[in-house]
């Protein structure tokens, strides 16, 4: 049915998104907090959960219908990740398939889209690894040293990446490498290229992956490239334009992470509220004390404000409007509120907040990452200072 009235069309789109939210919530109920707790204790990967999410089509939300996905857009994708986090799960195990998609959709060739997207949509292929960060370059992405040299119709890749998450649980890697040395380009943002690397073929043939243990169960790794050969067809878009392609995808990534943080904040606020109502100390519920009640109320107000910014950023992204400022502000506000809500939730639980069986300490460890990755708070503030307020560039 075609809906001509724009208000009715918007209403229908929101109905679809609310349906998606309910379906994801039902699916998450089959993977209770014990499931995530055990994975966290054993550093396991949620294979069954990711399989169920894929089979239900949720990880193909951003893939257009023509390639086997549902093409529902970023708002729907965000709501899926939010719902996983709200249920007590850890969307970090599978979110990259959502945020790497934009680069492939916008800049991949038709042949690449035909070859990969239907297989990603139905779960035969996993695109869960995104390789940008390097040990020496850090946040200064244009300083990366991993180099892809063109030789006899192939690219030979040498270098090292760090913090590349899910590489051991992905078939494909979207990789950023230099193809022209930095001192040979007019602008440092030029001469970088994006490749779609088949990890299954590369492993043992020039690619080594080494896991890094972290404070939460995030499956992150170091990657070493030693004369790894990939075909010319692995290049995404034009050689030398990769930095722009990656930047394009970063707004999507920031908005999706903001949704996850909103989900975490909702988890903490709900848990804190329930406990504050139930726990009796000094003959009454602890929630009657303003010292307990007000921080929860404050976290709720802050979460709702961050949620509004996140929805505005997603709406702009989905309608093709500029969304750089909103995407950055959403990520900044949501990552801070999820941490504060978690701290409040832990304080509300007293000693029990530290018990693994309550899942609060686990979720607090998981949500802390988002003030650092995929971009740290300082870098967001620098973006707002320079690009929104017109203050002098600091680096
Ligand atoms: C668990 C985990 C998973 C990750 N997954 C991935 C992944 O899948 N793929 C990937 O490519 N990367 C990934 N990352 C990397 C992540 O994006 C980076 O850690 C993050 O961008 C910060 O970079 P850095 O660690 O090199 O910090 P640095 O750049 O060394 O910065 C250190 C600190 O200095 C501050 N700082 C730096 N420059 C300035 C400045 N000019 N002004 C003010 N402050 C500044 C930063 O804000 C930060 O707090 C992951 C990281 C972690 C920890």
Summarize this structure as a short list of keywords or feature phrases.
Butyryl-CoA Dehydrogenase, subunit A, domain 3, 3 domains, Butyryl-CoA Dehydrogenase, subunit A, domain 2, four-stranded mixed sheet, 395 residues, four-stranded antiparallel sheet, 49% helix, alpha+beta, binds flavin-adenine dinucleotide
Q: Can you give a write-up of this model?
A:
Its cofactor is FAD. It comes from Ferruginivarius sediminum. Pfam families: Acyl-CoA_dh_1, Acyl-CoA_dh_M, Acyl-CoA_dh_N. This is Acyl-CoA dehydrogenase. One of its GO terms (molecular function) is flavin adenine dinucleotide binding. It is a single chain. With 395 residues, the protein is of the alpha+beta class. It has three domains: 116 residues, Butyryl-Coa Dehydrogenase, subunit A, domain 1; 116 residues, Butyryl-CoA Dehydrogenase, subunit A, domain 2; 145 residues, Butyryl-CoA Dehydrogenase, subunit A, domain 3, CATH 1.20.140. Helix content is 49%, strand content 15%. The protein has 13 helices and ten strands. It has a four-stranded mixed sheet. Helix 11 packs antiparallel against helix 13. The termini are far apart. The structure holds flavin-adenine dinucleotide. Flavin-adenine dinucleotide binds next to strand 1, strand 3 and helix 13.
